[in-house]
Amino acid sequence: MLNIVVCVSGGGTNLQAIIDGVAEGKIRNTKIVGVISNNTGAYALTRAENAGIPAFCVSPKNFGSREEFNNAFLNQLEALNPDLIVLAGFLVILPEKMIEVYRERIINIHPSLIPSFCGTGYFGLKVHEAALARGVKVTGATVHYVDEGTDTGRIIMQKAVEVLAGDTPEALQRRVMEQAEWVILPKAIDEIASSWE
Ligand code: GRF
Fold first, then answer.
1. CB 84 within 8 A of CB 2
2. Residue nearest to atom 4 of ligand 1 (CA)
């Protein structure tokens, strides 16, 4: 059984795709042992609670320093003893120690076809605004391992999505989520879990 912890900061639609994928058997041999958010208001926490999954909030606002937050976040992770950590819209710079301890065991979903429109400053709507500004005809999403860089780890899976005439950033974001993110993140987890003892 692959025990996973999902780290979230926002609405949690990617988390919901994972919850549904496990429930429907599309994601095999996997258990979501916990959800951690840095944002007390994240609807993703409600999605976890509704699914009976232990949900935790570790907010930087509750700590006097970055180091104290990092330690609390790492302690919460270790308490859940995950085999794999899934970053699903998690807008926090990971502690370096976390990347060392969980090397090749942290994956992230990014809403573009890396190496386009990624790296520092490219998150959420900004990614789609940049794709529209450049005039690309195809964009998509990428699941990759997380290393010390920003969106630089080994690519696991990608899925392309057509950009349509008249697309707004919001419309494009929704299409990329529906047609790519919510498809390849569960698929990538299932692939990892299928080869997990
Ligand atoms: C998604 O667009 C994802 O690609 C990006 O952050 C957003 C998270 O959305 N990393 P949600 O919280 O999963 O709905």
1. yes
2. 111
Q: Could you report the per-residue pLDDT of 70-127, keeping only the tens digit for each?
A: 999 999 999 999 999 999 999 999 999 999 999 999 999 999 999 999 999 999 999 9
Alpha-carbon span 183 to 17, nearest angstrom: 8
Render 133-176 in DSSP notation, one character per residue.
Answer: HHT-SEEEEEEEE--SSSS-SPEEEEEEEEPPTT--HHHHHHHH
Would you state the structure tokens that stand for residue 43, as one six-digit string?
């609807």
Which two structure tokens, joined as six digits, stand for 132? 């529209």
Catalytic residue status for 110: yes
Centre a 10 Å sphere on the Cβ of residue 138 and count the other Cβ atoms it contains.
11
By alpha-carbon position, which residue is closest to atom 8 of ligand 1?
Answer: 89
Q: What is the pTM assigned to this prediction?
A: 0.97
Measured distance between the N- and C-terminal CA atoms of the chain, rounded to whole angstroms: 7
Q: What would the two tokens of residue 60 be? A: 């930087």
Residue with tokens 């979230």: 8
**For ligand 1, mutation pick of 13, 47, 91, 144 (most atoms within 8 Å of CB):** 13
Q: Using CA atoms, how far apart are residues 75 and 63, in angstroms rounded to an integer?
A: 14
Return the ligand 1 atom nearest residue 42 CA.
Answer: 12
Whole-angstrom distance, CA of residue 156 vs CA of residue 102: 17
Question: How open is the CA angle 159-9-161, to the nearest 5 degrees?
Answer: 15
